[in-house]
Specification:
The structure is a homodimer. Chain A is globular. In chain A, a hairpin with a 3-residue loop joins strand 11 and strand 12. In chain A, 40% of the residues lie in helices and 21% in strands. In chain A, the strands form four sheets. The first copy, chain A, has a five-stranded mixed β-sheet with strand order 5-4-3-6-10. A five-stranded mixed β-sheet of chain A has the order 13-12-11-14-15, with helices on both faces. Chain A is α/β, with parallel strands linked by helices. In chain A, helix 4 packs across helix 5. At the A-B interface, strand 12 and helix 10 of A face strand 12 and helix 10 of B. The first copy, chain A, binds a DNA duplex through helix 3.
Chain lengths: 373, 373
DNA sequence: GCTCAATAATTTCCTTCGTCAAGTATTGAT
DNA sequence: ATCAATACTTGACGAAGGAAATTATTGAGC
């Protein structure tokens, strides 16, 4: 985050991260929370204030019995730096401009007529130009792509929807936009957003489940995102919950996705997705049963997550959840049945996230990279 | 590990850990592997040699084109310090004496006639006395207990088999034995052993599955053991793999344990476990199918682990695996069918571990605590 | 208003840890 | 014997954070 230095002192990163994710905090509070001395916090905060990332709020917090000098909380100056986040799907680019506090300031969609890498990069360049108001304060771009992505190198190993294989996306996007780029898998990016700026704040472990065409999951364990050794992690969609269930395109049987994915629901209901939703809402017993089975399967998959890694909190979201009124009770039922012992106490938030949230996730990853730099 | 200091320098811990887990290493190699300067390694190693934990081996390693000073690898002196590990089961104590290199030097079983805490502690005292030869070089004891254990405080929150609830085991055992005690869940202890001294060495992520009466799983992600926020983690046994499967005592349906646990096999085969094994080995089709279904269920559960956290390596083990010839192919079949994409590449070792291994796991945890101290 | 207790923030000094760069040690090849 | 190559050690230095004293800012009691 310092203009010159390659990497700032750990205390500086820790202070900035804490203020960013947990809101205004006084130096004493920060010291206690981070296990540092007050002196260390003072020293770490000074350059952050000088560089304009933090500011001192008016003394408001009162502590103790009443007496004592009031604390002056440190807050971020959200407009000090902006970040572009773009989710790349097969048929459009969804872009947002976020401030340092990860608030969305601007949001633009741009259709894609082709999956060709060069074409996408050109369109990306236009999108970024349209989003950025102040180039001097916007230096970073985060990209979110579905599939197997190596965040460290910015390489897209394989993205089935885009038909991309071994595309050095970071390098290419840096050339195309002139920004410092981070690339991450879309679900992981969304998980990061929720971990730093959403319901997962402060949780040592945390899971996010997305429901839609595919069913995915991002995991945070011991405060760190789980990436998976073989490029696979969070594939909740291909957990088998019914040995006698339908065959899945992955070769498995009774996968969550083969029961609860959008395509599965369409083929099982024999209707388009929207018609199925309407039929179920109108009380059609057969179609309702399809949604019920889907919700149960998802709940069962979520219970597997809870049983295995025991996250402190689970958020269920995704496009498919537009119809979440049809899913929710069944998801909870499946979860509660299959969660073992205390794992059933794990709070489950079921709520749809706006579609820009994916792009915001991408921006969040670039904020993280910025803070850590 | 220093007699006086509360906590040694991080570099010292890192050096000792690396030599302990990866065998003799020269200072240059250590420097490269740990991201330290050679000077730092020299400085960290000196006190460790002086205290007798490390020793310099004769120069043997030759590197490069031939010329150059030969490296003198650092190796641990395994007999510098001994550790007692005890696994507490409902009907016996299994104790081992390990050296610093986690080699078992001595192993004793001691039957338990009662589950009363005081009684168990008295027996533990006798066991420890029988195991220890040299009190001056044996200062630590690790305990492994099944159930919900808080390693940080040494509190056994709930152990179903022992009928213990909120037993401050560390405190009590320290009083009873005069040793510094660590308490850990049995599966996690075994996982730790395998991570530091077994097949999981060097892996950033790693999973161990135990098959027996219960079916459990220990996970290491990002180099750290997963503990679970609500005291639950690694409960692979209660992942649901068959919505129409048998009801499980946990309230779920089609849990891995309800299909593949020892009790499940006994009741499904209608024979004692040993008889069932013999029948299956003799070619009894019906009983073989029971084992096949059990293996498939386990494989399916393991695939869920691979899909979710993507460990670099998975080891399958446990008492029940005495009959692993009957399980192995089916475990692999279930795993390969249900593992998604590259997750199927995750190497799977299926092998029984000797029963003392559990006690060795307990000792390993105390070695870890010693090294980190 | 003055003083005191309580709490927050800063300053100064100091320790610790690890790096850098130069020097020493030990080998094989010529 | 000399040199190149590699391993290890040494000592000066610097960065980072801690301890404790100091300063700052408030409310309460008088």
């Amino acid at each position: 985050m310092l203009p010159e230095a390659e990497s700032a002192a750990p205390a500086m990163t820790a202070v900035l991260t804490a203020v960013l994710t947990e809101g205004p905090l006084s130096r004493v509070t920060l010291a206690r929370r981070l296990g540092l001395s007050q002196a260390a916090v003072t020293k770490a905060a000074r350059p952050l204030i000088e560089l304009g990332y933090l500011q001192e709020l008016a003394a408001t917090e009162r502590s103790g019995p009443g007496a004592g000098r009031p604390a002056s909380p440190l807050a971020i100056r959200a407009d000090r730096e902006f970040f572009v986040g773009v989710k790349i799907t097969a048929d459009e680019l969804i872009g947002v401009l976020c401030d340092l506090g990860a608030q969305v300031r601007k949001s633009i969609h741009r259709p894609l007529l082709d999956k060709d890498v060069d074409y996408v990069l050109t369109e990306l360049g236009h999108l970024v130009d349209d989003l950025i108001d102040d180039r001097s304060r916007t230096r970073r771009l985060g990209l979110a792509v579905s599939g197997d992505v190596d965040r460290a190198t910015g390489l897209v190993r394989y993205s089935p929807f885009l038909h991309w294989r071994d595309v050095p996306l970071r390098e290419l996007a840096e050339k195309a936009t002139g920004l410092t780029v981070t690339v991450e898998n879309d679900v992981k990016a969304l998980t990061t957003a929720e971990h730093w700026f959403g319901e997962g704040v402060g949780a040592e472990s945390f899971a996010l489940v997305t429901v839609g065409t595919g069913i995915g999951c991002g995991l945070v364990v011991n405060g760190r995102l789980v990436s998976g050794s073989h490029g696979v992690a969070g594939e909740i969609g291909h957990i088998g919950v019914d040995v006698n269930g339908p065959a899945c395109h992955c070769g498995g049987r009774g996968c969550v996705e083969a029961i609860a994915g959008t395509d599965a629901i369409v083929s099982r209901a024999g209707l388009s997705f929207d018609d199925a939703v309407n039929a179920a809402r109108a009380g059609d017993v057969r179609v309702s049963a399809v949604f019920a089975a889907a919700g149960e399967a998802i709940g069962c998959g979520i219970a597997a997550v809870a049983n295995l890694v025991g996250p402190a909190h689970i958020v269920v979201s995704g496009e498919g959840l537009a119809a979440y009124d049809l899913f929710e009770t069944h998801i909870r039922a499946g979860f509660e049945r299959q969660a073992f012992g205390a794992a059933a106490q794990c709070p489950l938030s079921v709520r749809p996230l706006p579609f820009e949230e994916w792009a915001r996730g991408a921006a969040t990853v670039s904020i993280q990279a910025f803070v850590a730099s």
